[in-house]
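Support case: user asked for a sample of complex input and structure output to validate their parser. Sending the pair below.
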Amino acid sequence: MHRYSFVLYRPLQLIPVLFGISVLSFVLVKSIPGDPVRMLLGTKATPEAVARIRALYGLDEPLFMQYFYFLKNLGIGEMGQSILYKTPVLPLIADRVAPTLFLVIGSVLLTLLIAVPLASVAATWRGRAVDHAIRAFTTAGLGFPAFWLGIMLIILFSVKLGLFPVAGYGETVIDKLHHMILPCLTVALALSAVVTRNLRASMIAELASDHATAARAKGLSESWIFRRHILPNSLIPAINLLAINVGWLIGGSVVVETVFSLPGMGQLLVRAIFTRDYMVVQGVTLVFACATVLLNFIADVLTVAADPRVKL
Amino acid sequence: MKGKLKYGLILAGALAILAGDITIAAAEGVLTIGRREDGTTMDPIKTAQNVDFWVFSNMYDVLVRVDKTGTKLEPGLAESWTVSEDQLTYTFKLREAKFSDGSPITAGDAAWNLLRIRDHKESLWGATYSVIKDAVAEDDKTLVVTLNQPTASFLSTLAMPGVSILSKKATEADEAGLSDHPVSSGAFIMKEWRRGDTVVLERNPHFWEADRVSLDGIQWISVPDDNTRVLKLQAGELDCGIFIPFSRIAELKQDANLNVLLDPSTREDHLLINHEHPPLDKKEVRQALDLAIDEQAIVDTVTFGVGTVANSYIPAGALYYHKDNLVRPFDPAKAKEMLAAAGVSDLTLQYNVEAGNEVDEQTAVLIQQQAAQAGITINIMKIDPAAGWDELVAGNYDISVNYWTNDIIDPDQKTTFVLGHDTNMNYMTRYKNDAVKELVEKARVEFDPAKREQMYIDLQKMAKEDVNWIDLYYSPYRNACRKNIEAFYQNPLGRFFMEDTKKM
């Protein structure tokens, strides 16, 4: 079989995964107590109005029927109606994709920009003061929660130094880029801590490997060896590590989007959960699940491309 | 080397652009307001939420408006009105006014809106307007409304944003599209709504009071995180911020760039009591509980002194508020005595509190400590907000903190809900007193203001005597604006007078 043949059959795995996720998200969101109609109508609503609006959204039907309607809607490419916004769910989500995508991609790029130089320095000068300093940074990066780190970055860079906007998404492309730097940095500081540690460890292993020794014996310079042998070989596990962390990244977007008031899917999800806007919760969960599966798939393709030995 | 230089230049250029002074101020004359949550609809009859109403009141006009003090009605789209001798027929004279699409606002539109909020299957306000028997346009400018029974509060219900005047023609043509391109009868038109994020309003040139409006537009921006919203305001990215946390008010008052605005509201926080759970069915036990709570300490600690102790279910400053109503002092020793006299020992109560609501959680802990001094044990149960109200409806609580804000200036709405209502079990307290209920009904149909006022004073005294719930505190709206914003004002019912607001 060809090395890349998994590209053809892997997408088929998506079907059972998505079915499982749709059942799970439906059951979970329905099993937490709470009522979207109560949230919508407020505390002054009469029981009659509550019953009428519940019926309007089919919430008085048996659970399996509600799930059946949900699947039926999916079949025709719809995700039902948001109870809170009284509008179809799909366009609601579509409007939110860009900021979240921007946040995730920007964070990953920024993570690599931070992690690769740090890990290289730490691995090259292993055991020296600079290595200890970098390890201290990674420990700190893991320890700070995003909601606190975000606010601290805002206070320093936006309020005190006036370099970046406090929060929001911006209007033009440049404006958006400008708005996204701090949120991406908030995510990247935590993520780069993980990546730096792993990258440093694999670089140290590679530096001591036979092929590196052989290269040194041939008289090649250390910097050449590092760029051509050590770095590419150490990056392969880092790609997988990033892919594993995509779920974490998307989860983190929920917090970061709230702190920086980015109109992304995470923020949409938070409010939907609080107001029990069932269709929106299910819709966003499905989109997140698809994204996670897709990004893992891309990571696999990249690994196969980067390492001729790998077969999937 | 050349390649590196090129990339270096590009990077430097990009950084220069990014780090340059890009304080993104909205266009001149556009007021940006940061609030916690975005609205949910542009159709006034389909919501009961303040976040929606506060936008509507500057987008749609109503027949009758509430004035700036929140205690009087003044003409809106109706320039005058007369009431028949039997209080059953109201005749409104509409002024010359146009919708934002240039078409005239007629009595036919007004009649259609009144019947729509009464009958529409998605209307949340059907019960409030079921008193309307019929609404008919006698001619283009004359609206006649007949009622099923005389109702003293009827005029004030016409000022509620739920019964905003929409264009009959435009709404009937495309009701689903109402939230995307509404036709407005008020000071501003909605240009864009990014759901969950921003509502963009623009000045309506066809508004009948267009001369009064100075702003070019308004942007309602959702900034869910309280800290971020305050920081955005301090950095000048917002002109105004609303829902400023109690804890930040003293600090923002020191900020030379900001004005902190604490406009009086009708918000009253109170402690619901489940009268069906013995021994809370005994009046003496409820009175003892009131004695065991130190409201002033709650005001000082939880609201940082911004609130004031509440002595009545009618908010201070509102119509018929009885300022001399009883305030029970904090007296744990006497509370203990009263409990013993009522034959109650080891009183243990379940206190439901909304999880994640900082103010309510602090209040609960404080009350728990205070009541302990009177020998009352309180078990705090944190419940998710979406589930909390269901628990109250089901009666799965002994006490629980809650709040109320008035939608109309007349006290009838709240009084009925908390003292004279059967279907909602008197706001879930299960409070029952037939004498009170009878008086609530009488006050509703009393048209002599002096007599009516006396009835509401009696009701406030009776409610306090019975301890239908425990009044905790009144609190103002908590807004802050940059110094260049003038006349940013919210009346006690929450209406912003954006037609007067100026951005210098």
